[in-house]
Specification:
509 residues, 20 helices, 8-stranded mixed sheet, alpha/beta
């Protein structure tokens, strides 16, 4: 029939995209519809909506954005994908409305939402009031905020994104940036030069390396579009469809490392470095650990793993980096990760081995108290199943952020190497006995006195003493740690621990 042929012909024209195909080839980027094939089970959307948006303007097919749902490993997810062949993926009135409609569908439909962003920002030649109208571009971040904690939001960046399109990823739960071709900043290099006189390129201003290692605004850096899609698909295997849905489960897999190795991984000396990821590999299911923000604030390791086939979120101090001390950046990283896990009912495992929060003028200027507070706040208010393992050092307020005994973990486990104290022996002896030590003139005699005082101080936090006084719930041999964790998480699967009534806290994590 003629009417049907007309619709199909128009559909075919729109699906070819805009006029700038040669431009994306030169940039080494995929056409948006080829990009979508990397994500979906049948290489096609489950359904697409708003295809005919702005169809009277032949140069703006679909108004520069593809939107709909797709099946990823047989799970339905909503998606919004910029079409760079249409005015560099810029956002006009109908483009923005399509974004809003998909966001609101995700609110109602309670499924994950993936943003595939390759947009130069708002369309200047349409800059009437659409960016502030009640139902247009300005509402995108309102919807982001409403969606936050309701369904997982994942953003992938494929090009330089400035102003509004740079906020879309940072409002999401997780951000993936494709190396060398993506960037995000509140203003473009040209605008920065106009406003400040500073000459800077996209990579330095807001490239993938900068945001994954310095600002912490991105979680993953992908070498290619294919790798970016794989990261998203893997990430979804740890996340529920929404905050009320069950977490995905998989068959249990034996750890990559034998649990008997743990005793050799953890050094006898409290200040000697080791890689906590080796400890993680000895506990969780083989090849299941997915590190989040691996290149940012490396003194704290955060990530998802599976334990007996079930998702857990891991927060671990990293003695290989800055001795495992907590800095402003790592406090910020820890707070965000813990808060995200709690939002989606992901159990938390804390592996504590820290000398505490870093001190000094620099960290104070960087907000160590405020950011440290956020980390402690997130760990305090997270009411998912949570277990604290004292691996080695637990000094000062570091153990507060790491969900120590007073912060309502469901259990606190100590390994034989555990030490819990207000500060390390060196600092403690120096603080309490400074004058007494200085008064001893003979070097050998002074050394013997220091050793005696340290031994006496250490006796106060002997692991057996702490277990005997129920400071920790249990003292576990390392080889049994995985088994103990599996049993305890299973026990607390039905955890019900509501917080006292309030509207919300005054602390933003």
């Amino acid at each position: 029939m003629e009417r049907e042929r007309k619709v199909l012909a128009e559909k075919e024209r729109i699906e070819k995209g805009g006029p700038d195909h040669e431009k994306i080839k030169k940039l080494g980027k995929l056409f948006v519809r080829d990009r979508l094939k990397l994500y979906f089970d049948d290489e096609q959307p489950f359904y697409e909506t708003g295809l005919f948006a702005n169809n009277l303007n032949e140069r703006l097919p679909a108004d520069g954005v593809v939107a709909g749902t797709g099946k990823i490993d047989d799970r339905i997810a909503y998606f919004i994908a910029s079409d760079f062949t249409v005015k560099a993926g810029s956002m006009g009135k109908y483009h923005s409305e399509k974004v809003l409609r998909i966001q609101e569908s995700a609110i109602r439909g309670k499924r994950p939402l993936i943003y595939l962003i390759d947009s130069s920002g708002g369309r200047i030649d349409e800059a009437g009031g659409y960016h502030v109208e009640k139902y247009s571009g300005g509402k995108i971040f309102y919807n982001h905020s409403v969606l936050s904690g309701r369904v997982p939001q994942i953003a992938v960046l494929y090009g330089p994104c400035f102003a509004g399109t740079a906020y879309m990823p940072v409002f999401s739960d997780f951000v993936v940036m494709v190396d060398k071709i993506s960037g995000m900043a509140i203003a473009s290099p040209r605008m920065v030069q106009m406003a400040t006189g500073q000459k800077v390129d996209v990579e330095e201003l807001g490239g993938a390396t900068m945001h994954t290692s310095k600002s912490g605004s991105a979680d993953f850096i992908a070498k290619s579009e294919e790798e970016a899609a794989q990261i998203v698909k893997k990430l979804l295997t740890y996340l529920p469809d929404n905050f009320e849905a069950k977490l995905p489960e998989f068959p249990s897999v034996e750890p990559t490392r034998d649990a008997k190795e743990i005793d050799n991984i953890i050094p006898q000396e409290p200040n000697r470095a080791y890689d906590v990821r080796k400890l993680i590999e000895s506990i969780v299911d083989g090849d299941s650990f997915l590190e989040i923000k691996a290149n940012f604030a490396k003194e704290l390791v955060t990530g998802f793993a599976r334990l007996n086939g079930k998702t857990v979120g891991i927060v671990a101090n990293q003695p290989m980096q800055k001795g495992g001390a907590i800095f402003p950046e790592s406090a910020d990283k820890g707070a965000k990760f813990v808060w995200t896990c709690d939002a989606y009912n992901i159990p938390l495992l804390y592996l504590c081995d820290t000398p505490g929060f870093m001190v000094g003028t620099k960290v104070e200027q960087e907000g160590i108290l405020r950011k440290g507070r956020n980390f402690i706040f997130a760990s305090s208010c997270a009411n998912v199943p949570k277990i604290c393992v004292i691996v080695r050092k637990a000094y000062g307020a570091g153990i507060y952020a790491m969900a120590g005994p007073a912060y309502e973990p469901d259990t606190t486990i100590a390994l034989p190497s555990a030490e819990i104290a207000i500060m390390g022996p060196e600092a403690a002896i120096n603080a309490v006995y400074y004058n007494k030590i200085r008064a001893v003139e003979d070097p050998q005699e002074r050394e013997e006195l220091v050793k005696k005082l340290r031994d006496e101080y250490r006796a106060g936090y002997d692991t057996f003493k702490l277990a005997g006084e129920l400071v920790v719930d249990d003292l576990i041999v390392p080889s049994e740690l995985r088994k103990e964790l599996i049993s305890r998480y299973e026990t607390f699967e039905n955890k019900d621990f509501p917080l006292p009534a309030r509207k919300h806290s005054t602390i933003l994590s």
